Amino acid sequence: MTQSITSDLLRPASYVSGSWHANADGQVLLDAVYGRPVAVISSEGVDFGGALAYGRRAGGALRRMTFHERARALKALGAFLMERKEAYYALSALTGATRRDSWVDIEGGIGTLFSYASAARRELPDERFWPDGKLERLGREGTFVGRHLLVPREGVAVQINAFNFPVWGMLEKFAPAFIGGMPSLVKPAPQTAYLTERVVRDIVASGLIPEGTLQLVTGEPGSLLDHVEEQDVVAFTGSAATAAKLRVHPAIVGRSVPFNAEADSLNASVLGLSVKPADPEFALFVREVAREMTGKAGQKCTAIRRALVPSHLVEAVTEGLRRELAKVTLGDPARDDVRMGALVSVEQRERVRETLAKLAGETRVLISGEATLLGGDREKGAFLDPTVLLCENPLTARGPHELEAFGPVATLLPYDSHDDAVHLTKLGRGSLAGSIVTHDRAEATELVLGMASLHGRLLVLNRDNAKENTGHGSPLPQLNHGGPGRAGGGSELGGLSAVRHHMNRVAVQADPTTLTSITREFVPGADVTEDVVHPFRKSFDQIQVGDSLLTHRRTVTEADIVNFAGLTGDHFYAHVDEIGAREGIFGKRVAHGYFLISAAAGQFVSPAAGPVLANYGLEGLRFIEPVGIGDTIRTRLTCKRKIRKDLRPGETRPTGVVEWRSEITNQDGALVATYDILTLVERARDSFDPQPETEDAPA
C-alpha cells in the first residue's frame, strides 16, 4: 500500500549521485512476524539516468586503483562491517529470519568480501589490467606476438537483487564488480530493502571506497534500465519469469548490454538406490531435506524442491522427515527457542498457498499441520508450516517440475533406476543446485555425469564429508553460482571468473619489447637489461622487469652424471647404462634433467647474504633438448614480473616475490630447458605496510 506516513518508521533512502534521497510518502512495509508497519520506501524523484552517468564518471577513480589496492579496500570494508553486524541482525529479524538464517545472509555476505580480497591479492597482478592466458607466438621468427588483456569496463554494474538475502545478495555481486574496477548501482527488492540500506549507509560512512563506487535505489526501479549503455552490465536475481522479461528490454538488446540472470529453479536432491535405512547417508538425506525446507522458511533459490527417493524407501523417508520436522519450532525469530521464522510477507505466503493449490491435482500431502507458534501473529504475520508432498507418478506429472512453491515445501518423487532419477532432475529444465546422497562411488559418478549438463553445482554428500560439507543450498565464493535453462543461464561467484564479467577482453598484438612494456611482464625475445650488479644483489624495489644475467659456461662431464646419480639414487638407464642408453630414444647417455636445473642454479646464484631471502618455487619446467657428456650449457636469467607481498601478522620484514624466466641453452645456442623461478626478495617498507611498533620515549 502507498500512503503518507508520519509515525516514526524506518525510511530507507536511495543513495545516488553522492547524496541521500528519502520521501515522506511511499510503500509501507510490514514486519514479517507481527504484521506491524516497519518502514516506508520510495524511489520517487530519483534521476536514474543521472545516477548511472554519475557512476560512470566516478568509476574513473576505481579504475585508477590496482587490483591489490582494491583488494585492500575490500578487506578493510569487510572488517568495518563485521564490527557493526549486530545492528544488521536486529533488522534481519523483522524480515522473518532466525539468527542462523541471518548468519548466512550477513556474515556470509561479509565473508564474500574477504574471499574476493584474498583471491585478488593471491592471484591477480598489482596492476590495473589482467594479462589473460598464455603468450601467443604469431610469427616464425618470434618478432610478432599476441596476448589477451582484461581491462575494466567503463560503465556501471546494475545489480537487481531478490528479497531473501538482502545483505549477501548485494555483497556477492558488489565484491567481484569492485575488484574488476566497476562501480555498482544496487536495486534491492522492496520487502527487505531497509536492511540493505543500513549496510549501504555504513559502507558510505566508512570512507573506505571511492565515492560513487556504490549507489543504491530503494523502491521501484522506474526507468532505470532505459538508461543503460554499452559499457554497463546488468545482473539480476529473482524469478525466471521476470528474468525473461528483463532480458529482452530494448536498451539491453539494442545496446548489447551484458545481462546475467540467476533465477529460481526446482532443485533436486537424490537419495541413492544403494542407500539403506541404517546407513549414515539415509539420515544425512532426511536432515538435509528438512534443513533446506526450513532454512529461511524455504525462501532460497537453491533450496530442495524435489526430493528423489527410491520407491521402496518412500515410507521410511516420510517417517524420517516427520520426526525431523517435528523438532522445528515456529515463531518469532528473535527468540532463541525458534528454529524457523516467517516468510517475508503475507503476500508471499499467499503466493505459496496458491502454488500448493495448483499442485494438489498431481500430489497429495504427507506432512502438514499447524505447529504452536512461539511468538508472532499467525494471521498478521507470514507464517507457514513445513509441508511435504508426494507425487506418485513423477515421470508423467508436470506440476512438481514446473511450479515452485517458494517457501517451506518439498515434494517426494519416487524412482526405480538411475536413468529415471537423471530424467526426473532434468524435467526441471535447469537448476542452480543439485545433490546426490550416496557412499557408492560408482553410483555417484553415474548420477553426477548424468545430471551435470542441466545443473550449475552438484554436491555429493556422504559420511566422509558430512562434518565439513556446507550443504545443498549454500553457494560458495570459490564455486559457480548459477545454472542453465530455467535457472537463468547465468553465472555468479566462481572465484575470479565473476571478476571477468566486469572486464573487457582485448587481444594486443605487438613486438616482444613493446608487449613487455605494456604488460610489465617479460616476453621472450624482448630487449633485456644487463648490469654489472648481479640481479640477486638488488632489492625488490631496485629490480626491474627485463633485468637479465647471462652466466658463464659449464661443460657436462661423465663424473657429473655419475655423482648426481649416486647423490639422488636416480640410476635411470638413460643416464648410467651405456648399452641401454644407446638403444633408447636419445641414442646416448644424457644428463639428468634435475641435474641441469641444479647446475643452472650454481651458475646464476650469488652465494653471499643479500636481499634474496629464499627460493619461493619453480613453475612451468620443460625439458626440450637432451644434454650429453661433453655438451656445454649456460643460463640466461631474466626478471619476468614482480609481486609485492603484504606483511602478515607477526612479520616485520617486508618482501616481494620476483619471478625469473630461466633459459638453459647448449653450445649451439639451442634451448635445452625453460622454467620460472620465484624468489622471495626483501623490499622497502611502504605506505601499505603497518607501521612498526616503537618503544615509548623515556620520560
From TrEMBL:
Residues 466-492 are annotated as: Disordered. Keywords: Oxidoreductase. Residues 482-492 have a biased composition (Gly residues). Residues 51-447 form the Aldehyde dehydrogenase domain. Pfam families: Aldedh, MaoC_dehydratas. Residues 545-646 form the MaoC-like domain. It comes from the Bacteria. This is Bifunctional protein PaaZ. It comes from Deinococcus caeni.
